[in-house]
UniProtKB/TrEMBL annotation:
It is an enzyme of class 1 (oxidoreductase). Belongs to the class-I pyridine nucleotide-disulfide oxidoreductase family. PROSITE patterns: PYRIDINE_REDOX_1 (PS00076). This is Dihydrolipoyl dehydrogenase.
Amino acid sequence: GEFTVGADVLVIGGGPGGYVAAIRAAQLGKSVTLIEKNDLGGVCLNRGCIPSKAIISMADFVHRMKTMETAGIRVNGITVEMERLQQWKQGVVQKLTQGVASLCKGNQITVVQGEASFVSANEVRVVTEHGSERYRFESCIIATGSYPVELSGIPFDGQRVISSTEALSLKKIPQQLLVVGGGYIGLELGTAYRKLGSEVTVLEGTGQILPGTDPGLVRYVTRNLKKLGVEVQTNALATSLQINGEKVDVTVRVKDETKVFSADQVLVTVGRKPYTGGLELADSGIETNEQGFIKVDRQQRTTNPKVFAIGDVTGNPMLAHKASYEGKVAAEVIAGLPSEMDAVVIPSVIFTDPEIASVGWTEEQAKQEGYETLTGRFPFGANGRALSMEGGDGFVQVIAEKQTKRVLGVHIVGPEASNLIAEATLAIEMCATLEDLSLTVHAHPTLPETIMEAAEAAVGHAIHIL
Ligand code: FAD
């Protein structure tokens, strides 16, 4: 039979939103139960950020070995054993997920493997291997994340037509890979497989890959994709598919034409949807918006005052660090602290080649918000460290308010953009001015010198450009 357990805080979903919320609530003295139906760590650790970066790093390593002849490096006969690469990647994932498990244990969090659904405003049912249990909670945090959108004409079969989940676990490098959807996930994985040896074609429905990202940044990625031999087709809508022996033929509308693209595998990366299926939100008074995301206020509270929601299930930006930040906010609010979602900016990173990282407003957005702006730009081609690592492609752009010189946005395309954006994010969070960036002594020779020089350039006195 079903028995009822009590919990101060019940967290549903063990991704970077849920496990962080659980730990923070436990730190604040709450008794916490964390329900996860799959694996601790969620999408991020098991089939998102971490495995993708592991594969991208190794693909890049292979690519660099093959392309450093100008520096006198000639490597003959590189072999990629995909099964070993996958085992290694899984080892990275395991270290991290086991780390999460021991953090939960050390914080006295009860982790339950099972699927949760609401039965009333303050109760959930959890179906586990052994049957079902009811949990009555004081507070609940929903952190169930998101899942890949399927195209009705090109349904997933897990073998030939795959999502990012399967693409991260391929045991064999496909000879031809067709990527449907030129957003960041499709381009990151498409680039990695190209570097591992696949022939890659990317189809993007709109007029630009990475829609929504500043074209001035995207240009560098487009150019390098071409150099890498990735075929990119924009304004291309994949409509249906046909299995043709060993190959898959995908029919695509390109403007007014119909074309057929053939490949061994088709990777569909056309977006992600909130994962609320089976939660029975309506039974507990939790409302969603038109797109199905759970509605929350600045304290992450849903329309049910006992229930909070965080991470991908609450909407964009669907990023791990946003999920974790919201998780801390929800846990602190539950513990009675005056927290709210008060991040000034949330950085976003695209792990293409070169990387793109952005924080705050673009020049255009700042103008739309009614600001007069100063903009400074510094090319990696004038930075010693970048050149000495063969990474001279790209630039740093700093946008500031003209009058106060307060930094409003920083946009980077180039080597290590993902790591460089941290300084810019802190600057904006702390209301730094151009002088704060330019008068901070930066170690030489390092990539962050480009941020200092872009800030100098904004007021017309960068040393290393005219
Ligand atoms: P999730 O990580 O999705 O976790 C939700 C968990 O809830 C899952 O484990 C699920 O099993 C569980 N669950 C769902 N329903 C129930 C239920 N009813 N009962 C119990 N458990 C349930 N973000 C970045 O910031 N940087 C990156 O580089 C990056 N790369 C990515 C690459 C790929 C290929 C993908 C797919 C995503 C990437 N993301 C990246 C996005 C990132 O993974 C998500 O933003 C993040 O995982 C969201 O965290 P979350 O806690 O909201 O949900």
